[in-house]
Amino acid sequence: MNKELMEALDILEREKEISKDTLFEAIENSLITACKNHFGKSDNIKVEIDRETCDFVCYAEKEVVEEVEDDCLQISLEDAREVSHNAQLGDMIHIEIKSKEFGRIATQNAKNVILQKIREEEKSVIYNQYCKKEKDIVTGVVQRYLGRNISINLGKADAILTESEQIKGEVFKPTERIKVYILEVRNMSKEPKILVSRTHPEMVKRLFEAEVTEIKDGTVEIKSIAREAGSRTKIAVWSKNPNVDAVGACVGMNGARVNAIVEELRGEKIDIINWDENPGNLIQNALSPAKIVAVFADPDEKTAKVVVPDYQLSLAIGKEGQNARLAARLTGYKIDIKSETQAKDTPGFRYEDYMDEYEEDYEEEDGLNFEDSYEETEEGFAEQEQTDEMSEEGAAEWDDSSDAYEE
Q: Is the preceding omega at residue 289 within 30 degrees of 0, hence cis?
């Protein structure tokens, strides 16, 4: 039994995940190559390897003839009977070849064949391994900066985090562990090229799948996601089980789940909203935390008119229009936001222009009545104004009482 060869094959199979069958084929091909280099031909060369003991035999098939014309393919009857006493003219006999007799060049070529096969299989194993992880997140170790790109070790292969896929302002130190999203795995000539990202919206989705059990088992589904990497992400979730709160499941106890994701994204804000089939309700949820007076959505044109209280306009639009921009990406609607004053003063944005068209649809779908909703809103503002007036009168009375007390 060839123990040394068996141990070497076991190590290669364990460390590089290359099957023994592949290695046995490489050894057979290397021996055939060595025979070709040594004898000039290999058409009649056969190699047999015992998979259990790793013992191998290399032999040449030669035809028994009276007069030898080709030493590689033929053998005389006299020489053949030295190998087999029963040899007859026209028989094919096996002549064993001693691999130790090979010259230095033939041996070196055989070695190169084996090494080349090992490199090819190792590359194939790595490619297949990371190709399965494409469109998923993995943990890597920061190695070094390559100009403005970053080299990240993923274990058995290195990945490249290009400048365009880095979150603006993020700085990493060597040996730091980070999570990245695998964008693409390319099978290159030398080794697979793996491109990763920290800015892709799907990265947030994968982080939630890893952190939230309900998303992983399919109870809660992520319907839509919009992200501006490094700043804010909006995510719409929906629960298949009416007894499970989708938003609550994603937030976790005392915000533990969402905070873990925010920490991984270096403080990026995450807004989690409920998905709704009704576009009006969905847009209203997407514009949170701003309060909405009315939403007029056109499913055919994928446009929406939104009216907000005057004091909520800046909050609905967000800093540099971010809140409205993310809401538009999340819902797929082009959203036009106006304050109540602007809506009343703009001819093309009056309630009367849209109320008749959408009121019946919303009432049929969700029992909503925008006239009642708007009246309730007006009553709410009236009560708020009355409360403010009472507060001002109370403050004045307190001032008078204070003056009287001082006197």
A: yes
307 within some domain: no
Same domain, 120 and 10: yes
Total number of domains constituting the chain: 3
SS3 368: coil
Q: Is residue 28 part of a domain?
A: yes
Which of 382, 381, 356, 384 is closest to 370 using CA atoms? Answer: 356
Q: Is residue 354 part of a domain?
A: no
Q: What is the largest CA-CA distance in the chain?
A: 144
Domain that holds residue 248: 200-275
In whole angstroms, how far apart are CA 28 and each of 109, 146, 304?
13, 42, 70
Interval 319-365: pLDDT, tens: 989 999 999 999 999 999 988 888 887 665 555 544 444 444 444 44
pTM confidence score: 0.67
**DSSP one-letter code for 2:** -
Tokens 């403050």 belong to 395
The DSSP secondary-structure symbol of 167 reads P
* 17 shares its domain with 123: yes
**How many Å separate Cα 343 from the centre of its chain?**
43
Compute CA 374 distance to the chain's CA centroid, rounded to the nearest angstrom. Answer: 45
Residues 227 and 270 in one domain: yes
Beta bridge partners of 74: 63
Q: Are residues 124 and 181 in the same domain?
A: no
CA distance 331 to 79: 87
Q: Please report, for residues 65, 66, 76, 102, 188, the alpha-carbon distance to residue 70 in angstroms, rounded to integers and kept in the order given.
A: 10, 12, 10, 20, 44
* C-alpha triplet 148, 179, 259: angle, nearest 5°: 120
Please indicate, yes or no, if residue 229 is contained in any of the structural domains. yes
Tell me: the pLDDT tens digits for 246-261?
A: 999 999 999 999 999 9
Would you state the structure tokens that stand for residue 179, as one six-digit string?
Answer: 């999570």
Residue type (1 letter), 9: L
